[in-house]
Amino acid sequence: MPAPAVPGESSRLDKWLWAARFFKTRTLAAEAIDGGKVHLNGERVKRSRGVKISDEVRIRIGPYEYRVIVRSVSDRRGPATVAATLYEELEESRAAREALLERRRMEIAAGADDPGRPSKRDRRQIEQLRKRH
């Protein structure tokens, strides 16, 4: 369990992202930072940059973007319930992410009626129709 936050305390960005469970490993967190997928207070930063309470972090993971405010600082990865207390997601970020998720679900559902390749039985029936004509 992370120690209580002390005002002025900071943590490396890659460690904080890992402790907050946005990434499974510190290496993945570092690669995302180096790749420009993480911004701190609107700026592209290096992985060693310190994260302080009330900083805004923008994280892009696949098609989803999280905008969170740092509420606590930790260098240690703990349970998910504790990790969730390290940040607070902005309401517009949550709404945009959920809207994108719903849109993607609808796209998948719209393509679900496509049967795909013909089965062996379907191919035989197609051949039968071709032979008649």
Task: Give an overview of the whole structure.
This protein has 133 residues and is an alpha+beta fold. Helix content is 41%, strand content 20%. The protein has helices at 13-19, 26-34, 80-83, 91-111, 120-132; strands spanning 10-12, 38-40, 43-44, 50-52, 56-61, 64-70, 87-89. Helix 1 packs across helix 2 (26-34). It is elongated and about 80 Å long. The protein starts with 9 loop residues before the first strand and ends with a helix.
Jot down its keywords:
two-stranded antiparallel ribbon, single chain, 5-stranded antiparallel β-sheet, elongated, 133 residues, alpha+beta, 5 helices
Brief rundown of the structure:
With 133 residues, this protein is of the alpha+beta class. The protein is built from five helices and seven strands, in the order βααβββββαβαα.
**H/E element string?**
EHHEEEEEHEHH
**Fraction of residues in H or I helices:** 40-55%
User: How does the overall form come out from the CA principal axes?
Assistant: elongated
Structural class: alpha+beta
Number of extended strands? 7
Largest sheet at a glance? 5 strands, antiparallel
First and last CA, distance: 75 Å
Write the layout of secondary structure elements.
Blueprint: E1 10-12, H1 13-19, H2 26-34, E2 38-40, E3 43-44, E4 50-52, E5 56-61, E6 64-70, H3 80-83, E7 87-89, H4 91-111, H5 120-132
Antiparallel strand pairs: 1-4, 2-3, 2-5, 5-6, 6-7
Helix pairs in contact: 1-2
